[in-house]
């Protein structure tokens, strides 16, 4: 069997079209224009390209976007002052501080300073707490993207054995949490694996849905999964250069061999990646609606 390819590029395109229509309607009917600010400290090339992609997508959807770039030696106090200014700016509904931050700045302190009402990355402890409790909140973008990919591809999670590899605060823990919530798209039996897991193959082999976010290129091989598994590969690993000089990417799953056993699988690139930015836009639109009393 060769797997169905779950294209994040296609699903993201579908959601972006919906968002674009929603943004146009908000402007026409309610004079509301969602606004996103991205804050980048320093000149890390990967961060620069992530921020550029976020602003480009925002513009394409009709979202007002502002990009603030600060020098690498910016102090924590200066960054906190900027966050506070954005918290009070009525044109801005979403604040994104690109991580990682330079070492003189305490990341947690900055993320906690963002108003939970504008925390479109979903990293603020208030939003994390609401997510765990199953309350309305901004869901973190990558886990939310995984959820949407599964739902829009018709993958049933109800009663499924979901195995997540990786327990980071931005992917592994929240995605595991979303899968066990008592609602559509959740209701799974969830196992979370990490570097101290004793027998990882035991767990991965019984997964109906395997979600891998470890950051280790091609770590999951075909002999570690069962026939008919649905695989969501969150990993993005640079494994060399293409002939045109671009970074060559690989996921955490050995795509070519695992796709022969899986029922469905996401590719890298073109899987979870495009969904992450799309969910950031969805959260920004949601925030604008909430501020306008429309949601
Ligand atoms: P992270 O913070 O480094 O966490 C990696 C997790 O994987 C840790 O919990 C670690 O366990 C676990 N792990 C690592 N090696 C393992 C192994 N050999 N066996 C079992 N568990 C192992 O990484 P992250 O931020 O969650 O990101 C994970 C991957 O997703 C990266 O490739 C990243 O680039 C990618 N990513 C993609 C997107 C996207 O939009 N597509 C977004 C975010 C991240 P311990 O806790 O025990 O150390």
Description:
The protein is of the alpha/beta class. The chain has two domains: 31-115, Leucine Dehydrogenase, chain A, domain 1 (Rossmann fold, 3-Layer(aba) Sandwich); 141-273, NAD(P)-binding Rossmann-like Domain (Rossmann fold). The chain is 40% helix and 17% strand. It is built from ten helices and eleven strands. It has helices at residues 8-30, 45-61, 76-87, 107-113, 125-133, 141-152, 172-180, 200-205, 255-258, 272-291; strands at residues 4-5, 35-41, 64-70, 94-97, 161-165, 189-193, 209-212, 230-233, 237-241, 247-250, 264-265. The strands form three sheets. A six-stranded parallel sheet has the order 1-11-8-7-5-6. The chain has a three-stranded parallel sheet with strand order 3-2-4, with helices on both faces. α7 (172-180) links the parallel β5 and β6 (189-193). α1 (8-30) packs parallel to α10, α6 packs across α7 (172-180) and α6 (141-152) packs across α10 (272-291). It is globular. It starts with a strand and ends with a helix. The mean pLDDT is 97. Bound molecules: NADP nicotinamide-adenine-dinucleotide phosphate. The site of NADP nicotinamide-adenine-dinucleotide phosphate (NAP) has 25 residues, from α10. NADP nicotinamide-adenine-dinucleotide phosphate binds next to α10.
């Amino acid at each position: 069997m060769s797997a169905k390819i779950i294209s994040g590029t296609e699903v993201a395109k579908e959601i972006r079209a919906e968002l674009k229509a929603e943004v146009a309607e908000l402007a026409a009917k309610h004079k509301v224009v969602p606004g996103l600010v991205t804050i980048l400290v320093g000149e890390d090339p990967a961060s620069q390209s992530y921020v550029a992609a976020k602003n480009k997508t925002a513009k394409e959807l009709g979202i007002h976007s502002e990009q603030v770039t600060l020098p690498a030696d910016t102090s924590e106090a200066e960054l906190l002052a900027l966050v506070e200014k954005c918290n009070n700016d009525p044109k801005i509904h979403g604040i994104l501080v690109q991580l990682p931050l330079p070492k003189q700045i305490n990341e947690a302190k900055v993320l906690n300073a963002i108003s939970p009402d504008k925390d479109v990355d979903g990293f603020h402890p208030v939003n994390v707490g609401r997510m765990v409790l199953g309350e309305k909140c901004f869901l973190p973008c990558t886990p939310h993207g995984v959820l949407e990919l599964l739902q829009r591809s018709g993958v049933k999670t109800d009663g499924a054995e979901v195995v997540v590899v990786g327990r980071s605060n931005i992917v592994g823990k929240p995605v595991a949490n979303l899968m066990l919530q008592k609602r559509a798209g959740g209701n799974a039996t969830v196992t979370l694996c990490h570097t101290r897991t004793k027998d990882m193959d035991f767990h991965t082999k019984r997964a109906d849905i395997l979600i891998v976010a470890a950051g280790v290129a091609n770590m999951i091989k075909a002999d570690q999964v069962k026939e008919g598994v649905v695989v969501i590969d969150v990993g993005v690993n640079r494994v060399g250069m293409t002939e045109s000089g671009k970074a060559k990417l690989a996921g955490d799953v050995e795509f070519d061999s695992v796709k022969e056993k899986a029922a469905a699988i996401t590719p890298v690139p073109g899987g979870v990646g495009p969904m992450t930015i799309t969910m950031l836009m969805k959260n920004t639109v949601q925030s604008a609606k909430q501020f306008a009393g429309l949601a």
